[in-house]
Amino acid sequence: MTGFSIMAFELMPKQLELLSELVPQARVIALLANPNNPATEPIIRTVKEAAGAKGLQLHVLRAGTESEIGAAFATFVQLKVGALVVAPDPFILARREQLAALAVRNVIPAIYAWREFAMAGGLISYGPSVSGTWRQLGDYAGKILKGAKPSDLPVQQPTTFELVVNLRTAKALGLEVPPSILARADEVIE
In 3-state terms, what secondary structure has residue 106? Predict the structure, then answer.
């Protein structure tokens, strides 16, 4: 077996930690995940464990269609969710503008796995650098083209991670981003 791991659920505890640092008063949080993604159940287990360790109440909502995303945000408001973790997923990534707009409209601080969310108006993202991963993939493909057997190459993991903070969104949500997060940010959108 060879290839790349995007570390879909391994980074979820770190995302929850960053979100708790950003919104320490949030004791009830939610996880939004796509039920059609095979990684969803391991992600849910990982986030439940991390939330339990922090003494946080976790609500898991699943959304696999655009209308389910809207319904999930209505439920977040009813549950008085103080913050949101958005699971990494291609379907969810493709709806980043919708998710970012709903989070701001409903005043729900949210963390996402990829910088594209923060660029689209999301509050904060932490995860592997997509461009860094593409570079690694190119190097990997080059090794194979030069004669390396894929079965001899180990599974690779991302080596570059990005923390992106959107201060415009923080302001719209009425949040003050702690200096400790700003100091670690790879990019701050002002």
Answer: coil
Q: How many helices (H) and strands (E) does the chain have?
A: 9, 7
Averaged confidence pLDDT in the chain: 93
Q: Are the beta carbons of 51 and 58 closer than 8 angstroms?
A: yes
CATH of domain 12-189: 3.40.50.2300
Rounded Cα–Cα distance for residues 47 and 42 (Å): 9
Backbone angles phi, psi at 164, to 5 degrees: -120, 130
Note the pLDDT tens digit of each residue in 124-169: 999 988 777 778 888 888 988 999 988 888 888 888 899 999 999 9
Q: Which residues have CB under 8 Å from 78's CB, separation 6+?
A: none
DSSP 110: E
Query: What is the DSSP code (8-state) at residue 22?
Result: H
How does pLDDT run across 64-92, given as a tens digit for each residue?
A: 999 999 999 999 989 999 999 999 999 99
